[in-house]
Design brief:
Length: 386
């Protein structure tokens, strides 16, 4: 299949670009001895799990379904080839009726509270699983919306130091590691600040454990990321406390490795020119509205940078289904295709069928340069959810 034959809309993930990211992450592992896991919440395109599993140490999940996906599509197939892959899971609260099944898929179970430890840890340990506890270092480094700050006041994520001091000692035999996750698209300076807070508050207990998980949000594969600082942070904790260090980036695995192809349905004249697309911010790239942010469109500029200005908008009834304002060096017209960059992450995993809008097809661009349609969606996919 040629690029010109691609269905619209569709997500295209480039296998070569994913592998470039994986090589960068593998380099961190090789130089430090840390283990890096795919956070499936950002990128769950399991067609490339065999590739990811060959470079990384496994996957991490947010619940039963992701844990099962990581087990079936990464851990189990690669295990048959002799490659060991770990399967981790963290949830703010586990469902009792799902926990036995979860234990079949996950190796490492991280709990969000001591009450969850009391409820489930003994059973997990009896099944040979590794158990951990999420902590809240209460060190906010977010520069964006509070919705992405796990250390915001009143956070439901992790155990703070006051609770830890009161309840840890009687349960220390049930916990072998600690987990924290406080970053979102951030550099290693914010990780370093967070580690200072972790050591300041929890340092005297760190030698009780065998591992620590630095969570996700590390933009390791972004150009200009401070790799040396990251590796210093990893080595500092390993050498000082004898801990195995885990990281679980999601975005970094597929950052800038995919795009969303869209078609212009109409150019509507209003206060300015509005290009209505077959792609919706609300349905197909919800982080555009949730973060919010303005995605890059290939061969375009910001408002006023070039001669022809357009507002790009989706086809739903939501008045705010607006992607952003863009300019082009030439007029764009009905039927033209536009390409939204960096759409592999937090897109397929978060999209929806609001208004009955069809989901974009999923396409893999192989190492050989071929376009392979992995999945196309139709009316049945919409109806089956209702």
């Amino acid at each position: 299949m040629q690029y010109s034959d691609l269905p619209s809309p569709c997500y295209v993930v480039d296998e070569v670009l994913v592998e470039q990211n994986l090589k960068i992450l593998k380099g961190v592992m090789d130089r430090t001895g840390a283990k890096i896991l795919l956070a499936q919440k950002a990128f769950s395109m399991y067609a490339v799990y065999p590739l990811i599993g060959k470079y990384l140490s496994g996957a991490t999940a947010s619940g039963l379904y992701e844990a099962r996906l990581g087990f079936e599509e990464m851990q189990q197939p690669l295990g048959k080839e002799g490659k060991a892959c770990e399967n981790h899971v963290f949830s703010p609260a586990y469902r009792t009726e799902e926990f036995d099944e979860l234990l079949h898929y996950a190796d490492h179970i991280v709990f969000n509270s001591f009450s969850q430890v009391d409820k489930f840890a003994t059973k997990a340990l009896a099944c040979g699983k590794t158990t951990g506890l999420r902590i809240n270092p209460q060190c906010s480094t977010q520069k964006g919306p509070a919705i992405y700050d796990p250390c915001a006041p009143g956070s439901r994520l992790g155990v703070d130091i006051d609770t830890f001091q009161k309840e840890y000692q009687s349960r220390k035999h049930l916990i072998s590691g600690l987990h924290f996750h406080t970053l979102c698209e951030q550099d290693a300076d914010d990780l370093e600040r967070t580690l200072d807070a972790v050591e300041n508050k929890f340092g005297k207990w760190l030698k009780d454990f065998s591992w620590i998980n630095f969570g996700g949000g590390h933009h390791i594969t972004r150009p200009g990321y401070d790799m040396e600082r990251l590796e210093r942070c990893i080595c500092r904790i390993q050498e000082k406390y004898g801990l195995m260090v885990y990281l679980e980036p999601g975005e970094a695995v597929a950052l800038n490795a995919g795009y969303l192809v869209s078609t212009i349905l109409e150019i509507k004249k209003s206060d300015g020119d509005i290009a209505i697309l077959d792609t919706s911010a609300a349905c197909h790239m919800p982080d555009v509205l949730e973060m919010p942010y303005r995605p890059t469109v290939r061969d375009s500029g910001g408002a006023g940078e070039s001669s022809y200005h357009y507002r790009l908008a989706g086809p739903t009834c939501l008045a705010g289904d607006i992607i952003g304002d863009y300019s082009f060096s030439h007029p764009i017209n009905e039927g033209d295709k536009l390409v939204f960059e960096d759409m592999a992450i937090y897109s397929m995993v978060k999209n929806n069928t609001f208004n009955g809008i069809p989901l974009p097809a999923i396409v893999l661009k192989t190492k050989e340069g071929e376009y392979k349609i992995l999945k196309q969606f139709g009316y049945g996919d919409f109806k089956s959810r209702l």
